[in-house]
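Instructor's aside before we start: the two examples that follow are unrelated to each other. I chose them only because their records fit on one page, so don't look for a connection. First example below.
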Amino acid sequence: MEKLAELILIPSPAMGHVAQMLELAKLFFRQNHHLTITVLIMKLPDYIDAVSGPFVDSVAASSSSDRLRFVHLPAADPTPEWSSKTRGHFVYRLVQSQRSHIKDFLISQSSGNKLAGFVVDMLCTPLMDVADDFKIPSYVFFTSPAAFLGLMLHFQFLEDECQQDVSLFKNTDGSNLLSFPSYAYPVPPKVLPMVLVDRDTWRGRFLDFARGYRKAKGIIINTFAELEIHQLDAYKKNNCNISRSEQDQVPLPPIYPIGPILNRSKSKSESEEAEIKNWLDQQPTKSVVLICFGSQGSLPLDQVKQMALALDNSGCRFLWSLRQPPQSNNAQFPGEYTSYSEILPEGFLDRIEIKGKVVGWVPQLKVLSHEAIGGFVSHCGWN
């Protein structure tokens, strides 16, 4: 009997990343019956993020196939330095700490299935070095838009090949629009992603990520041509220009748009989901606005009160996902409030009892698919 090939997937532990990678694992699993999938799971401590860990556990528990397995890497031992900056810095340190554990895992699997490749999350490129040591090809799963991928690679080229400090873009006169290959139209400097123009974040993490993308055998991206025609064409033209030039440049890896990948797994208890669904079932078609700022989105108290006043005065029906900001740790993710009455204006919950509902985490795909939803106020995350 022919031995199956094994593909190893390594997601970043943050919710928006791990959910997409688990859906990618299911996609590979369904479309190739000669492939086994192993997902290496690294978890954030509960005091940092109380959402992603239970979510992964529920997905793993629901898997019944011996061709799709989940391996939990050893828990990390964070130092105070991990929490000294941002949650992104904490995740970066966590990923780096898993190198030796992944190496040990690969050694333990030497007599098993043939390893066909690594697929690492866009924020896990430091782990590609481990795959290189074992002569295993690495691919990157990019969970953001092709426009952002192109911008990262362009900024990395400016930094490494042109010795240009890209953080200076943020100081550009606001009246001057900036043009970039992967952006269809010029943009003002203030809309550039913070992680690319904040010098510490760019040079401390994202510059290395972008360098890793260039070393990959291919980049799998959660997008599709009909949505990002210009961005994907710009990527292909970049490679065409390199192949025609006389410069000693390595072409970019091939890109594979496979989106949209949507998180269809459960993220709340059945009773919590049922409560939200029952409320939506009572609302007229296309009458409710969903307000949700993603797994990392939260508002300070003064903005919560202003948002509440605006919703109260608008007269609109709404479902508001309201998350609690981190309380004591720079690296913490938003959590859940125990009581909304303490932070919202006096009488607000009574006044909006019929037309509005305030909740914590929401099953976003299910909510957006409900016929009662007619609008979406979002942080513009790719999910």
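Example two begins here.
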Amino acid sequence: MSCGRLISLALLGCLLLASSCGGGDAEANVEVSMPDVVEAEIGETVIINCEFSLPENSSYAYINWFSGEKMARKKIISLIQDKEDWAEDQYRDRLNIAKDFSLVIRKVTVQDAKTYICQVGLGSLGVSENQTKLQVSKAPELPEVQLVKDGFRAAEPTPQEIATCTARNGYPAPSIIWYKNREVLHPKDKETEIRATVITESSGLITILSMLSIQVVKEDREAQFHCQVNYTLMGTNKTAVSESFKINVLYATQNVTFTLDQANQELKEGDNATLVCEGDGNPPPEYTLFKTEDTQFLAPDGRLLFSSVLRNDSGVYVCKALDLHTFEEFAASVDLMVNYLDVPTIFPAGPQEPAEGEDLL
């Protein structure tokens, strides 16, 4: 074998040894330029640039890409004489070195969030390197709200669990804020409690559940609630809002009214009329309507309809309302008056013969 051939083989062996070690090489005067931080969206492709300028009439010997910190790094891919070499087969489908020596990572995962080091072997000029921190993120799915139950009784002494807000498969961990009538709800002793649960999925993505508990009052029947998820995507703070919802507040009956729906109208025979009994509780009380104790009407909704009212329908009607939670009974009455007109009957008189001088009337 010729002497020149031996020298070439020896030089190549030295280059391969240097690329494998990744340390202990002489510092080169060539500067490797890399961004401090690169943002990537999970599932997408990211490119980490590695830029350097070679002196005139010189070329690179190898490019090494490592992951991890300087003292505990791991080689993942190399480029030697324009040929890629993967440290492990698991990297073949997702990692490549581009023509400009950038590292290309496809289908980014949570586990790719690391520090990446680009090392440039410059032959007799030595070795230069720099590093970039890769930060990954993913927007969570739209928040979902689920009510704990169908109804919530007012005036309970302690907060009741109302609803959960769930934001699934985000990264990094999002946070959840609750709103009532567009105002932020903060934890408050004996009034409002907010409890969060963080779940790390097998994929590394994070699901967060937030449970809202409040001390329910009657006025909450008109309140609008929703939750908001705060998260970071590609270095930018973002939000997502759930649909708003109301809660079914249960409270006892305190008052009952019993009225004629045409209150300002005089009824006459043949008119339609409706008597309406209404309690102010939720759920409504159980109604019993009657004219006398012996005459009860079937009116579960508290409404008694007369499709063609008669004079005999006149009289005092009573409504009794039973609250099925407190078992307290309420009563109210209404006086129904039906106007009528009897048509007079005229009977013709027999023939009369008035005497002379009598009035004909």
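Helices lie at 3-21.
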